[in-house]
Amino acid sequence: xxxxxxxxxxxxxxxxxxxxxxxxxxxxxxxxxxxxxxxxxxxxxxxxxxxxxxxxxxxxxxxxxxxxxxxxxxxxxxxxxxxxxxxxxxxxxxxxxxxxxxxxxxxxxxxxxxxxxxxxxxxxxxxxxxxxxxxxxxxxxxxxxxxxxxxxxxxxxxxxxxxxxxxxxxxxxxxxxxxxxxxxxxxxxxxxxxxxxxxxxxxxxxxxxxxxxxxxxxxxxxxxxxxxxxxxxxxxxxxxxxxxxxxxxxxxxxxxxxxxxxxxxxxxxxxxxxxxxxxxxxxxxxxxxxxxxxxxxxxxxxxxxxxxxxxxxxxxxxxxxxxxxxxxxxxxxxxxxxxxxxxxxxxxxxxxxxxxxxxxxxxxxxxxxxxxxxxxxxxxxxxxxxxxxxxxxxxxxxxxxxxxxxxxxxxxxxxxxxxxxxxxxxxxxxxxxxxxxxxxxxxxxxxxxxxxxxxxxxxxxxx
Length: 463
Ligand SMILES: *Cc1c(COP(=O)(O)O)cnc(C)c1O
Prior knowledge:
The chain is α/β, with parallel strands linked by helices. Helices cover 38% and strands 16% of the residues.
């Protein structure tokens, strides 16, 4: 069926190349033109309302067109929009750095700004490498990363990523990363139960430390949730043990909290749950509450001091982006941190996530096609499987997630599944009633798919 297409949609398709999309798919599924947003809702050009259950690609925290953030942004725009950040500075940048040091784990004392998550990863990788060079350990030039890791899509970030979908074609261009099998709690190779887990899978990483530590500069991980891989969750003990290995083998720990930072896992930062301080913590996405591109890399005095010397020694970290420390973005991020503080959002997240977990577990645990409903903080994920007993996945060619996504959109719910995994990562301003609505609508969309589309497909298979 050829969809009717609006003039704006037609003009979009004439010139816009959208991210992470096969543009041919847009022929029968044109882009939805969003005119405005308020709270957890988005409104398209026809006035149709959508619940943004994925926080617009994991960035929004306190709703769209948030009163406090918009006001702070507007005021800042009339005062100072941007200034070079080398040799110059400004209040939003200073105040934000102070606040970030205050709210992140102890020991992270220095803040380097960049303007997106991938760039923050590049900064951390480069800093770690240069640190070891300047500590007379030039042989330390490889990174260790986990299977199913996602750290962004610039070439350095892709090099440490482990999701084939994104980096396979680019393999010939990428760094020679050491790869260790990461945790896989749903399909645990040791058949451990989450509540009594002894993290036997640490042995995979430990092995790589033993073999490669002399050439390793850093290990990079996504604490508690490997998000892009399909919201794969693992316990804090894993992080705790990883930190010990890093100390033992003189390898930096880079915590990529781009997706999980700012309350998503139930604590302000995921590392808190393991009681660890990484050598580098990368932040973006929620940092500006979904308003503007900004990222920050926090690090320690030890790292900072290895670069601090007379100019002639050429030890400086010569990395910059034109928009480094943009005052608008910094002012907005500062407002986000004030909102966390003033409105006690971590407590709020606790109450809402407990409710979400109870309700979603009740709805999905016994569903014949749900292998698992899992949740950490305000991130909930439904893993659809072909066979509940064997956990056999649906073939990716069936594009189940994509089809359920389309059904849900018709019902006014924006999900954006990762393969066969549907997930919720709503803005924190969502109410209990709205949480229930998201779960009910998701359930309906799943039911509709399996009753109708999936059944039709089966008929085709036998024809
Ligand atoms: C999104 C993401 C990135 C990349 O951030 P961008 O701003 O999209 O470049 C890096 N790491 C993780 C864990 C992410 O989820």
